[in-house]
Amino acid sequence: MMFEDRNLHETIKRAHEHHVANFEMKRDKSMKDILTDRWELVSHVLAAFFLLVAMSLALSFFESSLNVSMEAQNVPVSFSVASVTNAMLGIPTAHARAGYDGLVVITEPGHVTVSNGEAKAVRIKVKNTGSETWYREGANYISAYTYEPKYHVSPLRGPKWRSDHQVGTLMESSVAPGQTGTVELFVFGPPGFEGELTEHFRISAEDVSWLGGSVAVNVTVVSGETADVSSNEKVASPSSDDSARNDELDIAGYDGFLLMKSTKQVTVRANEEVSLRASFKNSGTEAWSAYELTPVASALAAANTEISYYHPSWTSKNVAKTSAGKVVTPGLVERIDFTFRAPHQTGSYTAAFQLVADGVVIPDAIVEIPVNVTSNAAEILDSPKKAAPLTQTVYREGVKIEEPRVRVGIEILEAAAIFTANTEVTVVESDVGYERFVIPAGQGMEVNFNGSKYVFKSGDILHVADSFLRFEGKNEDTIFTISSRDDVRSWNTSLNDNTFRDTLEVRFNDVKDRTWLINELPMEKYLRGIDETSDYAPEEYHKTLYTSARTYATYAWETKTKYAGEHIDMRSSTYDQVYHGYGAETRRPNVVKAVIDTAGQTVQYDGETIIAAYFSRSDGRTRSWKSVWGREVPYAQSVSVPCEVGRVKWGHGVGLSAGGALCMADDGSTYDEILKYFYTGVELIKRW
């Protein structure tokens, strides 16, 4: 017991001595040592702070890079590391709110020519694809921001801008779900600058969400006298008259608003006439020496599918009423009586008409009428002619051939192609058809042409070949995923069109000294992957476009002249037809149905497959083949396109106008009627 007490005493004594020594050491520490210790502490705190800031900025950028896919799905992001960090640092973070979503339909004009000191209007039409109504004013008002990168200072900014990176006003007071709204913004010609500029904008519901993808506006700035736009901004008229559109107009003093309308809304049958009176007050200081009441185009988000309200009483397709020389002085009220025709499909719409005085858009002088087209519209459209199966009347059977297998050049290889498949794949070498390997489903494959040899790798296989290599899937439902291919859709960056059916081939040609990655597959499966319209366009329009596309591809397959020696029939880009493969097919079931419904049908003239040229939009007429390319082609003659009068031509103008075909489909024409209108003297022949 005494021994234990003595040991305890010694232990306590030693601990006390150590404590005293440590205390003395700390007391004797120099001021330099103290400052060094404190600096180490401060430096650690600062390092942690800057690391936190860096993480916040990096994660914010990462979130913004994903915003297209998140917003397209309307997923409310209420928590993330970046948002929490930003909150700690006082950095505001905006997130998409469920119910807010949109799809850009069209930007008009897509190209603007503007003088120094001049401003011109651009209108972006956006369909409300969410469940919340948009408003011109209020907490979540609609406007546009500069984009790519977000919120940058724009060289095209001017006095009508909300800030150096925010611009635009929703022309409608509100846009309900399913309707299309128009955001009007002005681009300003920078003083002292001449040349080309491209500005990107993106529509936003303030403090809530982005609406649709970004849009690009190409601007040509030309020399001119710089206007003092603070008091005398110049704008271009949106009138359909090109000369008026290009006039420079002093808008100071032009103002007005809708005072009343004869009805708040209408419920009508399809194609029924609607008569309306709208009263507008001139609240400005300038007299209106001439005015036009123009329809504000509403549209479905389907290949710019415009809904027409045209009535024969209108001055033109784009002008419902004109003043006929009447002058409206300041303070007076002008009553305008006009008629429009209801859309021909069942649904809820908003017919909108804008007052343009002396070529100046009066923003508040717009009349909007909700139009409810009742269910009996379907009875009007379902005429006996269309009730009968179209295959009984619109084409004739030709000499049958086996369905062609087309070869599409999808990429010129600069590096190895890397891919997998969902089924086993047979690797075949050269035209002789040596079957070299069978690769299991899901196993990675890599192939390249190194300038003299084809090099193939997969698993533990390394094979060097003198001749080209084919990768044949088990059947046409084999889907290859090319991980080395980056073909992301600008309107939804979560979509990478790198999947293709059936067979791939890597083949060098010395005609153009390049190596193609080729997709070979049956014609009808190829057509499903052509991505030149949306899934929401009218059925007869789909049938028209894809019968024309089948005809174009058949001609390329038959003649093999355009890419002679390159072992392909067509390219996957606008050189021929925009082909995005299996990805495009999966997101457009209505297009697939149209391809199936018209299977094997091509357009012929005098027993030969035609070159089925088509383009985006005309200016009121197509062009003959001879006027554009110098050769007389009997089936490619100029025809009028009434619904496109006053519009800007997109494309070469020969053959079928996609916009005109859309108008005819909307007006009830069948696909064979549309094809035979644009291609003179032709007939539809079923080949397989």
Protein model, in words:
The protein is an alpha+beta fold. It has four domains: 26-89, no CATH class; 97-236, Immunoglobulin-like; 245-381, Sandwich (Immunoglobulin-like), CATH 2.60.40; 397-403 and 530-686, no CATH class. 23% of the residues lie in helices and 34% in strands. It is built from 15 helices and 44 strands. The protein has a seven-stranded mixed β-sheet. A hairpin with a 4-residue loop joins strand 27 (425-429) and strand 28. Helix 2 (31-65) crosses helix 4 (81-89), helix 10 packs across helix 12 and helix 10 packs antiparallel against helix 14. The radius of gyration is 33 Å and the shape is globular. The model is unreliable at 1-5, 23-29, 63-95, 225-249, 299-305 and 376-393 (pLDDT under 50).
In short, what is this structure?
By secondary structure, this protein is of the alpha+beta class.
